[in-house]
Amino acid sequence: MPLQIIRNDITKVACDAIVNAANATLLGGGGVDGAIHKAAGKGLLLECMKLGGCKTGQAKITGGHKLPCKYVIHTVGPKWKGGQNGERELLISCYRESLRLALSHDCRSVAFPLISSGVYGYPKDQALKVAVDCITEFLIEHDMLVYLVVFDKSSFQISEKLFTDIAAFIDDKYVDMHFIFRPTQRDAWGDSTFLGTTEILPPNETDQARLSPDVFQEGATTASKKVSLPTQTPTISLEDALKREDESFSQALLRKIDEKGMTDSACYKKANVDRKLFSKIRGDVHYHPSKPTAIAFAIALELNLDETKDLLQRAGFALSHSSKFDIIIEYFITHGNYNVFEINEALFAFDQTLLGA
Ligand code: AR6
User: Fold this and answer.
1) Is the domain of 53 the same as that of 120?
2) Which residue's alpha carbon is at the smallest distance from atom 24 of ligand 1?
3) Per the CB 3.0–4.6 Å rule, which of 11, 68, 223, 271 could disulfide with 300?
4) Are residues 213 and 286 in the same domain?
5) Contact 295/305 with Cβ under 8 angstroms?
6) Residue 356 lies in a domain
7) Is the pLDDT of residue 290 over 60?
């Protein structure tokens, strides 16, 4: 997964480079800066002393010393002064300069904290948006594994409105399923193909705990292969329709990429899927993706709900109102928001598995 949001202490993340949210002296401080210097040992401070400080929005690189990474990239985020003092541009510059340094040092993986969102007071939801936008812009042009490391849940915030909207949507759907459920509705949702499971969960159930572990595993075998065409199928010949009926996930995916006039790379990048994994899918007609991977492609292809369900069925999955994960996906599709990274922010905020692979 090219961009991963993870909850961890950044000093424990094993990757080529970690980014430090430093101050202009580069001589250590509190927050993530203090944690990095403490874990790296005195050697890091001695190296930093030779750098002559760093301007806001700029970045400098040192070795990783005792940390499990090769490099530390030190960047100085802006202090929040109300938002009218160039804070956003400076924060964008921190991410760009840090990624540029990582690239020029041949880093294949880099981990960022949410720069400026602590002591420097940048509003957390806006700091997150800048981070995700800058990183995804960079990943369009470059192959790298970028971790956005969230230390504690309270330091991660999506916009209040989005969170409330999604929470209300989840409430509605759970209620729908719980109180208005009739067998015909279940059929309409295709739950009979959901890994053989037909049970309806109560609203307060933890969804993923109740799912088969296979659901979220790459290459999981499918329990059933029941394919139906999307309800809004464009006009095609009977022969083509029959061929499509038998298509595997991989065949359907590749056909849809062509139909949308997308390149492979545009599709897997938009899906937050690693190039190597995409090659595997391309080369194996019977490839069984995990559910988050299959959905990531449906999002990248901007499929509507029926088309998404059709693609998922080919991998043995369905969307259901008994899963919070599924309902969040439905929220974004029905709102026409196909930004996989924004969807992942929301999934992370609701403690769900992220899209991509
Ligand atoms: N791993 C990952 N993230 C962390 C960790 C950690 N170990 N510790 C804190 N965070 P901050 P800033 C998160 O204050 O706002 C220092 O004193 C934290 O929850 O470290 O850019 C420097 O010397 C928050 O979301 O950096 C500067 O003077 C994010 O890292 C000043 O603070 C950034 O919080 C820089 O302030």
Assistant:
1) yes
2) 118
3) 271
4) no
5) no
6) no
7) yes
Based on the domain organization, do 75 and 29 belong to the same domain? yes
Using the mean position of ligand 1's atoms as its centre, give its distance from the Cα of residue 326 in Å: 33
Residue 262 lies in domain: 238-349
Ligand 1 atom index nearest CA of 35: 7
Number of domains in the chain: 3
CA-to-CA dists, residue 311 to 17, 73, 319, angstroms: 37, 41, 11
Q: What is the mean pLDDT of residues 134-153?
A: 94
Q: Whose CA is nearest to atom 5 of ligand 1?
A: 32
**Is there a single domain that holds both residue 276 and residue 244?**
yes
> What would the pLDDT profile of 65-117 be if each residue is shown by its tens digit?
999 999 999 999 999 999 999 999 999 999 999 999 999 999 999 999 999 99
Please determine, for residue 169, whether its predicted confidence score (pLDDT) is greater than 80.
yes
| pLDDT tens profile 244-269 | 778 999 999 999 999 999 999 999 99
- Are 122 and 51 found together in one domain? yes
pTM, 2 dp: 0.83
Average pLDDT over residues 229-254: 75
For 322, the token pair is 């008994």
- Tell me the CA–centroid distance for residue 346 and ligand 1, in Å: 22
Contact 76, 23 (CB under 8 A): yes
Which of these three, 106, 127, 157, is where a domain ends? 157
The answer to whether position 47 is within a domain reads yes
Task: Tell me, yes or no, whether 49 and 18 share the same domain.
Answer: yes
What's the whole-number mean pLDDT along residues 16-28?
98
Report the 10 Å Cβ neighbour count for 146.
27
Q: Which residues line ligand 1 (CB under 6 A)?
A: 9-11, 21-23, 29-33, 35, 77, 113-120, 149, 151, 155
Q: How far apart are CA 151 and CA 149, in angstroms?
A: 6
Beta-carbon count within 10 A of 260 CB: 13
Does 212 have pLDDT greater than 50? no
